C-alpha cells in the first residue's frame, strides 16, 4: 500500500513540505523498497524539483527500489536517464545504479540510452562504474549501438578504477568479436591489464585479449593460464584460449554428406598447414540403392516388367535412390573446376577436376557455408573480390589467404585507392571487412573472379 506516502505534498507542497515529503519517502524506501513500486511514475517527477535535497532524497528512494527489484524501474527508465545530467553527484550516482541493474535484467529497455551512458564514463567513480556496467550488459545484444562510441570506450580502458576497467573490458569483448581490430589501438594498455592487480580485471582482460589478433596474446595467455595467482583466472584463461582456438574453425564434419541439398555451398579443407580450400556449390548427390526403393517405385506404378532390364528399372529418374550418400559433386563457377567428395572407411576423399586433369586429396574438413563466406574461402592470391560496404562498391586483389596465429585471414589490396581490407571468415561475424585502422563494415554481395 502506498496511500500513506506523502506523494501529493511531494508534488504540490511548499518548499518545506516537499523537502519533508522527500525525506519521508526516502526513509520508507530504505525499510520497504517495494512499497514504492506502484508510485514510481509520480515519484520520479520530483527528480526535476528545484531543491537539491528533494532530488537527492527521491533519487535515493529510486535507488532502493531499483536494487531490490530492477525491473520495477523499467516504466520510468526515461526520466532516470535524464537525471544522469543532474548537477548533484548523489542524484547521478543514485539513478545510475538502477539503470545498470535494469540493463542487466532487460537490456532491450535501456538500449535507447547508449549515448546518454557514454558521457558519464568521465564522471565520479560511483557514476562511471555503474554506467560502465550498464554498457557491458548492452554490448553483447546491441554492438551496433555501441560501435559509434568506440573511441570513448577504448579510452575508458585507461580509467584507474578497477570496476570500470572490468566492465569496459567485458564491453569490448562483445565489440571486438563483431568488429575485429577495434581494440588494436589499445593493444599496449590491454597487455598491461592482463597482469593487473585485481583478479576480475585480469580475467576480463584475458578474455578480450583472446578475441584479438595481437602477436603477444598467445604467450601472455599461456603464462596466465600457467602461473596466475588466482585459480579462477587460470581456469577462465584456459577456457578463453580454448574458445578462441575452436571459435575460428566452426567445423561441421561430413555435414555435406548428411544434410546438404542441391545449391548448398561447401568448403573442403585439404591441408591444415597451407590451408587451401576447395570450394563449390552442390550440383549433384549420388545415393546408394536402399532395400525399400523397389517397393516404393512399384507403389507408384513403376513395374519391373515395364523395362527391359532390372538395372533400367532401378535407374528410373523419377525415383532417385534413397540410401546412404555415396558421393557429392560440387562446382566452382569462378575458377571453373569440379569437386567430387566420397566417403572412405573413416574419412572423406576429394577429387578436384578441371580442364587439365584431376588430383586426389584427403579432406581434413568439409564445411557447409553460406554462399558469400564460401566465396571468401575460395579466394587465393591473385583473385579479385568485389563486394559492397555501406552502399559503396569495393574491389580488391587478394594478396594473402591462409592461417596466421591459428586464424584464417584473407587480405586484399585496392592499389589504386591505397587501402587494404582483411576478412576473417571463421569469426563470429565472418562478413566483416576490416580496414587497416581497425574500422569494420559488413560486406554484402560478394563476388569472386579468378586471377589469370
UniProtKB/TrEMBL annotation:
Source superkingdom: Archaea
The protein's name in its UniProt record: HEAT repeat-containing protein
Amino acid at each position: 500500500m502506498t496511500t500513506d506516502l506523502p506523494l501529493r505534498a511531494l508534488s504540490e507542497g511548499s518548499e518545506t513540505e516537499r523537502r519533508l515529503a522527500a525525506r519521508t519517502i526516502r526513509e520508507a524506501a530504505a525499510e520497504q523498497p517495494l512499497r514504492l513500486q506502484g508510485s514510481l511514475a509520480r515519484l520520479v517527477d520530483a527528480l526535476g524539483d528545484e531543491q537539491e535535497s528533494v532530488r537527492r532524497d527521491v533519487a535515493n528512494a529510486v535507488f532502493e527500489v531499483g536494487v531490490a527489484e530492477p525491473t520495477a524501474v523499467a516504466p520510468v527508465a526515461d526520466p532516470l536517464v535524464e537525471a544522469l545530467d543532474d548537477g548533484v553527484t548523489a542524484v547521478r550516482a543514485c539513478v545510475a545504479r538502477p539503470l545498470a541493474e535494469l540493463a542487466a535484467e532487460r537490456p532491450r529497455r535501456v538500449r535507447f540510452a547508449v549515448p546518454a551512458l557514454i558521457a558519464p564514463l568521465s564522471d565520479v567513480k560511483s557514476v562511471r562504474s555503474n554506467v560502465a556496467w550498464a554498457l557491458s550488459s548492452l554490448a553483447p545484444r546491441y554492438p551496433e549501438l555501441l560501435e559509434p562510441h568506440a573511441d570513448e570506450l577504448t579510452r575508458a580502458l585507461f580509467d584507474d578504477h578497477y570496476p570500470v576497467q572490468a566492465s569496459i573490458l567485458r564491453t569490448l569483448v562483445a565489440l571486438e568479436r563483431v568488429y575485429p581490430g577495434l581494440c588494436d589501438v589499445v593493444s599496449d594498455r590491454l597487455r598491461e591489464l592482463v597482469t593487473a592487480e585485481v583478479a576480475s580485471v585480469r580475467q576480463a582482460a584475458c578474455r578480450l585479449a583472446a578475441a584479438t589478433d595481437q602477436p603477444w596474446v598467445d604467450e601472455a595467455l599461456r603464462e596466465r593460464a600457467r602461473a596466475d595467482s588466482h585459480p579462477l583466472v587460470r581456469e577462465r584463461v584456459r577456457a578463453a584460449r580454448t574458445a578462441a582456438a575452436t571459435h575460428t574453425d566452426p567445423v561441421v564434419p561430413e555435414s555435406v554428406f548428411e544434410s546438404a541439398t542441391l545449391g548448398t555451398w561447401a568448403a573442403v579443407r585439404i591441408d591444415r598447414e597451407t590451408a587451401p580450400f576447395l570450394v563449390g556449390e552442390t550440383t549433384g548427390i549420388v545415393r546408394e540403392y536402399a532395400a525399400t526403393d523397389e517397393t516404393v517405385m512399384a507403389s507408384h506404378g513403376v513395374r519391373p516388367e515395364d523395362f527391359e532390364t532390372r538395372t533400367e528399372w532401378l535407374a528410373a529418374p523419377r525415383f532417385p535412390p534413397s540410401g546412404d550418400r555415396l558421393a557429392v559433386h560440387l562446382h566452382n563457377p569462378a575458377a571453373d573446376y569440379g569437386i567430387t567428395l566420397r566417403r572412405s572407411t573413416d574419412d572423406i576423399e576429394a577429387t578436384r577436376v578441371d580442364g587439365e586433369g584431376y588430383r586426389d586429396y584427403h579432406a581434413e574438413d568439409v564445411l557447409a557455408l553460406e554462399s558469400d563466406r564460401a566465396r571468401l574461402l575460395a579466394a587465393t592470391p591473385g583473385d579479385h573480390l568485389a563486394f559492397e560496404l555501406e552502399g559503396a562498391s569495393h574491389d580488391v586483389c587478394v594478396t594473402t589467404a591462409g592461417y596466421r596465429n591459428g586464424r584464417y585471414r584473407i587480405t586484399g589490396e585496392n592499389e589504386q585507392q591505397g587501402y587494404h581490407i582483411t576478412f576473417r571468415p571463421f569469426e563470429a561475424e565472418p562478413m566483416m571487412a576490416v580496414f587497416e585502422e581497425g574500422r569494420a563494415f559488413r560486406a554484402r554481395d560478394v563476388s569472386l573472379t579468378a586471377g589469370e
